[in-house]
Structures are given as structure tokens and as C-alpha cells.
């Protein structure tokens, strides 16, 4: 659980956040607000997708996808840290307003690299320009993310190509890819839907704030 959510859950022993599928999450949050005299506020609308069959992109950007190595640990950590703030900005929110914060460190990156779950798209000169990550499979499912391209490299198809190749690699291993998107970011939703990702359920992060007199 992200640190900001842990803080809200532990403060004075009160439950002040609900995260889950609609409409159950909203019903839970509204009942909690009724019992505590609070009010429900939406933090973020998200959506869960799975991939029945990959639709490969029609165009491939220059360069290649490779698995990250220990030499890439500092770079991948910097991109993990940048992902959430950039995602807020792309969705039209204030940077850093997401209830999640990055809790990763170099040891975490090295564990992920050793597990083969971080990939970098590199340009023809070998410079990394994009990151696609995935979680280790659980019960035959792996969640892709984060997917991050630095601002100076966006709009060139790196995210589409990276997610496509990682998704196909998972399918070839007999693993079902899935991912969450921010509903306020139409660009990422369009990219994944074009690759064949199918929306399964709308989810939401809700905060239950005390009513101030």
C-alpha cells in the first residue's frame, strides 16, 4: 500500500480511503462517510484492462527493446520516480497530487532487473529512450507498468512498441497481461486499446474527508 494511503488508514485508527471496483468502492465510501460524518472525494478514476489477443502496431520506431541490466538501475529508478508526477500532469492534475508516491530504491530496481521485469527501448545509438515494466506473474497474470517515456522522446511510438513486445513476451510464456490506466489520460487509453487491450472494469480511488465546520 502506498505511503500516503497508509498514513490515511492509520491516522487516529480511522479508515479514510477506499480503492476498488465501481460501484462497490463508492457504496463502501459513502457508508463510511455516513458513519463518520465525512464526505467522499474522488482522487482518481482508473480502469482495468486485459489482453485477449495482441494487435501488433503497424509501425515500429527505430531501435530495439532489451532487458535492463544492473548498469541501468539508477536510470530506471529516476524514471520510476518521474512516472507518477508526469502522469498527473498528462491527466490535467497538479504534479504530485496523486495519492500514490514512489517508494522504490536502487535495491528494488536491482531485484526487478534480476527478475527480468524491466525493459528499455534504445535508439539506434543504444541510448535508452523508454521504459516498460511488468510485475512478476501471480496466478498466471502479470500487470504491466509503469510505462514511461521522458518528455523529450514522446510522440515517436516507443510506448506502443515497448508495451506490444512485452505483452507478446508474456503471452508467449503463457501469462495473461493486464494493466491499469488513468481514465483522465486519453492518450494512454488509446494506445492500449489499439494494441487489443480490453476494458474489464472501472475502478476508483476515493478519499473520505472530515467535514469542516
Question: Briefly, what is this?
Answer:
This protein is α+β, with helices and mostly antiparallel strands and 213 residues long.
Keyphrases for this structure?
about 35% helix, about 210 residues, alpha+beta, about 30% strand, eight-stranded mixed beta sheet
Describe this structure in words.
Helix content is 34%, strand content 29%. The protein has six helices and eight strands. Strands 1-8-2-7-6-5-4-3 form an eight-stranded mixed β-sheet, sandwiched between helices. α5 (158-172) links the parallel β6 (141-148) and β7. α3 crosses α4 (106-114).
Please give the structural blueprint.
Layout: H1 3-10, E1 17-21, H2 24-36, E2 38-50, E3 64-67, H3 73-90, H4 106-114, E4 118-122, E5 128-134, E6 141-148, H5 158-172, E7 176-182, H6 186-194, E8 198-210
Parallel strand pairs: 6-7
Antiparallel strand pairs: 1-8, 2-7, 2-8, 3-4, 4-5, 5-6
Helix pairs in contact: 3-4
**Percent of residues in helices:** 25-40%
Mean pLDDT: 86
Q: What string gives the helices and strands in order?
A: HEHEEHHEEEHEHE
- Count the E strands: 8
Instruction: Quote the distance from N terminus to C terminus.
Output: 31 Å
- Label the overall shape: globular
- In spatial order, strands of the major sheet run 1-8-2-7-6-5-4-3
| Strand composition percent | 25-35%
Amino acid at each position: 500500500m502506498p505511503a500516503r494511503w497508509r498514513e490515511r488508514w492509520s491516522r487516529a485508527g480511522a479508515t479514510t480511503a477506499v480503492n476498488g471496483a465501481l460501484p462497490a468502492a463508492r457504496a463502501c465510501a459513502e457508508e463510511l462517510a455516513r458513519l463518520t460524518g465525512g464526505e467522499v472525494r474522488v482522487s482518481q478514476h482508473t480502469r482495468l484492462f486485459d489482453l485477449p489477443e495482441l494487435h501488433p502496431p503497424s509501425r515500429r520506431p527505430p531501435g530495439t527493446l532489451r532487458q535492463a541490466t544492473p548498469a541501468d538501475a539508477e536510470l530506471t529508478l529516476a524514471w520510476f520516480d518521474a512516472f507518477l508526477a508526469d502522469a498527473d500532469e498528462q491527466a490535467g492534475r497538479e504534479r504530485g497530487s496523486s495519492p500514490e508516491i514512489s517508494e522504490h530504491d536502487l535495491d528494488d530496481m536491482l531485484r526487478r532487473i534480476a527478475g527480468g521485469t524491466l525493459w528499455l527501448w534504445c535508439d539506434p545509438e543504444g541510448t535508452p529512450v523508454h521504459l516498460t515494466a511488468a510485475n512478476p506473474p501471480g496466478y498466471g497474470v502479470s500487470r504491466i507498468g509503469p510505462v514511461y517515456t521522458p518528455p523529450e522522446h514522446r510522440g515517436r511510438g516507443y510506448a506502443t512498441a515497448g508495451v506490444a513486445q512485452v505483452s507478446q513476451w508474456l503471452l508467449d510464456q503463457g501469462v495473461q497481461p493486464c494493466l491499469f490506466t488513468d481514465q483522465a489520460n486519453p492518450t494512454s487509453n488509446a494506445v492500449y486499446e489499439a494494441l487489443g487491450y480490453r476494458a474489464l472494469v472501472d475502478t476508483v480511488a476515493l478519499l473520505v474527508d472530515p467535514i469542516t465546520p
